[in-house]
Write a structure and sequence with these properties.
- Chain B: Its main location: membrane.
- Chain B: Belongs to the binding-protein-dependent transport system permease family. CysTW subfamily.
- Chain B: GO terms for molecular function: phosphate transmembrane transporter activity.
- Chain B: It is found in: Cell membrane.
- Chain B: It is a multi-pass membrane protein.
- The complex is a heterotrimer of chains A (293), B (305) and C (296).
- Chain A has 293 residues and is α/β, with parallel strands linked by helices.
- Helix content of chain A is 34%, strand content 23%.
- Chain A has helices at 2-24, 43-56, 69-77, 126-133, 160-169, 184-193, 222-226, 246-256, 258-267; strands spanning 32-38, 60-67, 83-86, 101-115, 123-124, 151-155, 179-181, 197-202, 214-215, 233-241, 278-280, 286-288.
- Chain B is mostly helical and 305 residues long.
- Chain B is built from 12 helices and 2 strands.
- In chain B, strands 1-2 form a two-stranded antiparallel ribbon.
- Chain C has a single domain, classed as MetI-like (MetI-like fold, Orthogonal Bundle), CATH 1.10.3720.10.
- Chain C has 10 helices and no strands.
- The chains are: A alpha/beta (293), B mainly alpha (305), C mainly alpha (296).
- Chains in contact: A-B, A-C, B-C.
- The interface between A and C is medium-sized, with 37 and 27 residues.
Chain lengths: 293, 305, 296
């Protein structure tokens, strides 16, 4: 009994002094912590930029979490985190008071429909696209393709990709109830392997395994998005509550700087905000910002 | 005199230590109870807000078949029909239990009656291993093997109730099996001996005596497995297809309570109707686990008599 | 068909069923290992993960998984031990209250882990401002782990014959002393088995961690063992993506070109770890049993 007391005391003393010593010797640079929460699609970009930033600015630590656009906006609104990553305008999300939030655009994402190869559809008008996704067209024959039933694969309700696609691709129409996938890679895999399947994804996920139809003759590409001839695109936003404190503002400026926009943004499949020739607000008003070159 | 009196009346060191130990272990138990109660309160307060704050009719919620909390119909009411998910959850649960039960009973009988030695050496570890495989891994295999197989066999996308049930079947099999083994072992030895002494074959003994005697225990095991299947999230979400539609057939995409909950919770804003509606789904999950528990207790009570 | 034939048929059917269960497991394990093992390398096991280029590893995730498991056990074991002891040694087995408490524990165990995770998110991450951290994750996992562990402790204690307790009482020991000095040592082998097996489950849990320990794994500085530094592996306030969460994440959002390979490799590592836990449980339980009972 006595011995166990002795050992216990020694263990506590050793642990205590270890923690005490550690506490006294901790790095003094723990002060600046920037926390970002939100869109899982935007997470890799902010995370990679954050690591880059931290390596250049000693003492700043950027902590990036997923959790979804809704979580990000709710948390930044509540003041629990510094940055809320979002795939859509804050005022488009129900339950968010957008007036209190300041929008910082960090990238543009282009979204395109993708069709299974067996459907043999290579061009669609926007009206046809709407008819397909609202369930009016049930066979690819009706839009000039093969005799194959249409299999809709939707994205999760509330996700940024779906909101953007419905707003700009379907002109605000709601797509019919169908299978939902929350990941772009999985959606592409289903479209590639299921005869007659159709879905949509960000440009980064499109590859040769699926047909990407042109929309009234317009090909989805970086250039067509930049001059708004391809209408289905959206900004990736980083929101702050009110004007950010200096450390956070510096990081946002870094996200928008050429260094990140020229290298990191394209390698993640996004389009740099600096390449955009137009600016579009929430209600679709388009403004030219740069001349065509 | 007083010293003796004092030492007799005073609490002994051992008694004090006993009180101390009792208090410590009791507070640990109390902590668990507090955790359970707070989770319950938390989910209930969030889940009931759909009905009390957002004024959704409970009946509409349980029987409505359109789930799109962000949209409103012509009367300005939101579409929060949870019936497709409730149906989906029950379908995958019952189907997986239906497939798992014969396998579990067969394996358990094999382990206890036919070949106890091999049972203990091979099947015991095998079932324990199956318990240990993480649910993401089950989901990963489901997506990369099961779904393409279903697509090739039944057409469609391969995602659906059937795929979900198959994954759940493998996931609950070990739980049901090991619990069945325990009940079979608990059947007294003299039952077996008297049956054999009466001239019964081994199968007659198993079928007419042991399984009959162990029925309450086996039922408990199956219900327990169903409770696990009902609450499983990630693996099911990956293979079920997540379409909040009333299931037309077993191979069309469907959704379960857990799959909709996992997918949607990050995309909604706390306090909004969309978010509260998801918590209502969580409340249903919680109430169902309560129901499963009550059933297990009822069976146990009946079996004990 | 007479009784003898029925007996034969039934025996064959039972053999087939038992065989197919083994086959299912063998197929599962075989598939995961065949898919995953070719991707395993020292580099894969130690390198940090990459977000969008090929060649990322799982080093940080692997460490996080073990560290989180350790912290979880540190919190949950004492609580489970105490609760188990009270339930089996002190509680009035016939009282309704005990029954109610047992039901509460059962419910906690059948609670979907997503719900536990979200509860942990709102209460610890947001309300208590612990942030996405190992501590938040460990508390959420504790909720998930407590019912299992409590039950296994209780069961282990129950298998100790009452004779031992009576012997303790006859020697004038208090109930607590009996428990600490007689019952617990005797029950140790099966308690250890319970711990290791539940460790396997905690190790593979993902849903409860997505919203508590977080989905990002910042690079760690393995030369810095000061638990108060941000990049130290020992810091419990840092976000920590575990292996299971990593698999879930790259299956749903991964954009690195070798996502399938990383996910297969990570699954294989996860399975191997769980296998090791199982063998460890068996070995520990056997050797402890031998040492404590002096049987060969």
């Amino acid at each position: 009994m006595k011995r166990s007391w002795l050992i216990g005391t020694i263990v506590v003393a050793v642990l205590g002094s270890f923690f005490g010593w550690s506490y006294l010797n901790r790095d003094s640079q723990n002060g600046e912590n920037i926390t970002a929460v939100g869109s899982t699609a935007l997470q890799p970009l902010v995370e990679a930029a954050g690591e880059d930033y931290a390596s250049k600015h000693l003492g700043v630590y950027v902590n990036v979490q997923g959790g979804g656009t809704g979580t990000g906006l709710a948390q930044v609104q509540a003041g629990a985190v510094d940055l809320g990553n979002s795939d859509m305008y804050a005022s488009e999300k129900k339950g968010i008071d957008a007036h209190a939030l300041v929008d910082h655009r960090v990238a543009v994402v282009g979204i395109a429909p993708m069709v299974n190869k067996k459907a043999q559809v290579h061009d669609l008008t926007q009206q046809q696209l709407i008819s397909i996704f609202t369930g009016k067209v049930k066979n690819w024959r009706e839009v000039g393709g093969a005799n194959l039933p249409v299999v809709l694969v939707n994205r999760v309700n509330g996700s940024g990709t779906r909101a953007t696609f419905e707003k700009w691709g379907l002109q605000g129409a709601k797509s019919a109830d169908a299978q939902e996938q929350d990941s772009s890679g999985m959606a592409r895999q289903i479209v590639a392997t299921t005869p007659g399947a159709v879905s949509y994804a960000a440009f980064a996920y499109l590859d040769k395994s699926v047909t990407v139809p042109t929309l009234a003759g317009v090909k989805p590409s970086k250039q067509t998005v930049a001059n708004n001839t391809w209408p289905i695109w959206a900004y990736e936003h980083v929101y702050t509550k009110g004007q950010p404190r200096p450390a956070v503002a510096n990081f946002i400026a870094y996200l928008q700087s050429d260094h990140i926009q020229k290298k990191l943004v394209p390698s993640l499949g996004y389009i740099s905000i600096n390449d955009m020739k137009v600016e579009r607000d929430m209600n679709g008003h388009v403004k030219m910002v740069r001349e065509e070159s | 005199m007083d010293e003796i009196r004092e030492s007799l009346l005073k609490e002994s060191k051992a008694a004090r230590r006993d009180k101390f130990g009792r208090a410590i272990s009791f507070s640990a138990l109390l902590l668990i109870v507090v955790v359970v109660v707070s989770i319950f309160y938390f989910v209930a307060s969030k889940g009931l807000a759909t009905f009390f704050v957002n004024k959704v009719n409970i009946w509409d919620f349980l029987t409505g078949t359109k789930w799109a909390p962000g949209q409103v119909d012509a009367h300005g009411k939101a579409f929060v029909g949870a019936a497709p998910m409730i149906t989906g959850s029950f379908l995958v649960t019952f189907l997986s239990a239906l497939i798992a039960t014969p396998f579990a009973i067969g394996t358990a009988v094999f382990m206890t009656e036919i070949s106890p030695k091999r049972g203990a050496k091979i099947l015991g570890p095998v079932t324990e291993l199956l318990v240990g495989i993480p649910s993401v891994v089950y989901g990963f295999i489901g997506v990369s093997v099961l779904v393409p197989f279903m697509r090739a066999t039944f057409g469609g996308s391969g995602f659906g109730i059937l795929s979900g049930s198959m994954v759940l079947f493998v996931m609950i099999l070990p739980t049901v099996t090991s619990m069945t083994v325990d009940t079979l072992k608990a059947v007294p030895r003299h039952y077996r001996e008297s049956a054999l002494a009466l001239g019964a074959t081994r199968w007659q003994m198993i079928y007419k005596v042991i399984l009959r005697g162990a029925t309450p225990g086996i039922l408990t095991a199956v219900v327990f497995g169903m409770a696990r299947a009902f609450g499983e999230a990630l693996a099911v979400q990956m293979v079920v297809g997540n379409a909040a539609l009333m299931p037309q057939n077993l191979t069309s995409p469907a959704a379960t309570l857990t799959s909709v909950l996992t997918q949607g919770i990050g995309n909604t804003v706390m306090g909004s109707l969309e978010n509260n509606a998801l918590w209502s789904l969580a409340l249903i999950l919680l109430l169902m686990s309560l129901v499963f528990n009550t059933v297990i207790r009822a069976i146990a009570k009946k079996g004990a008599m | 068909m007479n009784a003898k034939q029925a007996d034969k048929v039934a025996t064959i059917v039972l053999y087939v069923i038992a065989g197919s269960v083994i086959l299912i497991l063998a197929a599962l394990l075989g598939y995961i290992l065949i898919q995953g093992v070719p991707h395993l390398s020292w580099h894969f096991l130690t390198a940090p993960a990459t977000a969008f280029t090929a060649g990322g590893g799982i080093g940080v995730q692997l460490f996080n998984s073990f560290y989180l498991l350790f912290i979880t056990m540190l919190i949950s074991f004492p609580i489970a031990l105490g609760a188990g002891i009270y339930l089996n040694e002190y509680a009035n087995q016939k009282s309704r209250l005990t029954g109610l408490v047992r039901t509460a524990i059962e419910i906690l165990s059948s609670l979907p882990s997503v719900v536990v995770g979200l509860f942990g998110f709102l209460l610890f991450v947001v309300q208590f401002k612990l942030g996405f951290s190992i501590l938040s994750g460990a508390i959420a996992l504790t909720f998930f782990n407590l019912p299992l562990l409590t039950r296994s402790v209780e069961e282990s204690l129950r298998t100790i014959p009452n004779l031992q307790r009576e012997a303790g009482a006859a020697l004038g020991l208090s109930r607590w002393e009996t428990v600490v000095h007689i019952i617990l040592p005797a029950a140790l082998p099966s308690i250890v088995t319970g711990i290791v097996l539940s460790a396997g489950r905690v190790f593979g849990e993902a849903a409860a961690l997505i919203y508590t320990a977080g989905q990002s794994a910042p690079a760690l500085n393995f030369a810095d063992w000061n638990p108060f530094n941000v990049s130290s592996p020992l810091n419990i306030m840092r976000p920590a993506e575990t292996l299971a969460v990593h698999i879930w994440k790259i299956n749903s959002e991964g954009i690195m070109p070798d996502a399938a390979a990383v996910s297969a490799g990570a699954s294989a590592v996860l399975i191997i770890a769980v296998l090791l836990f199982n063998f460890l449980a068996r070995y520990l339980s056997n050797s402890l049993y031998k040492r404590l009972t002096a049987t060969k």
